[in-house]
UniProtKB/TrEMBL annotation:
InterPro entries: Cupin_1 (IPR006045), Germin (IPR001929), Germin_Mn-BS (IPR019780), RmlC-like_jellyroll (IPR014710), RmlC_Cupin_sf (IPR011051). It is found in: Secreted, Extracellular space, Apoplast. Belongs to the germin family. This is Germin-like protein. The gene is LOC125316395. It comes from Rhodamnia argentea. Residues 1-23 form the signal peptide. CDD domains: cupin_OxOx.
Amino acid sequence: MTNSAWLSASLALLALALSFADAYDPSPLQDICVAVQEPKNALFVNGKFCKNPALTTANDFLFSGLQVPRSTANPLGSTVTTVFVDQLPGLNTLGISMVRIDFGIGGLNPPHFHPRGSEILLVLEGTLYAGFVTSNQLNNTFFEKVLRPGDVFVFPFGMIHFQLNVGKTNAVAIAGLSSQNPGVTTVANDLFNAKPPISPVVLAKGFQVDEKLVETLQKKFWYDN
């Protein structure tokens, strides 16, 4: 994909993200608030401390290199490159962020959810199978779709979702999120790689499986991580 196409796609996605940016993060009370490290002995705040505007530069609002493909040589065959407030301090208080997701053939961005944001995904290259599951209130309804370049799909706030490369080539997507720090909770990691570990009795009962299977999964996640 050309640089101009990348720019157009990114701008379109950010425009969409801006439309729901106020869904969770509070609205800013000043023009800019570039994030800085917390001062020593500072009180906790819901976000980051602000850099003195007089010391702010254009570089505080710049992140470079999102067009560069990332290696997918890992067990999942996918890599997520985040542009959250920790990577781009100028996002502080703005209620938006974005990611690039690279998929090898058969690569999976595993079931996960964002505890502080909704997500809107744009496929740039390849073919992805994506879906999300609603809460118990809606009987855990599963919404799924095969996505191709130019397709946009929304994952509602807090819903478990995933993307799987079902094409014959590598795939690339970018996503906008409605928080400067949406967080990510990977379901399998949380359950089987918790520290300290969750009792196998609890997981075996919850999944209605044998405790030995739970212990096997826990060991696999401990070794892989």
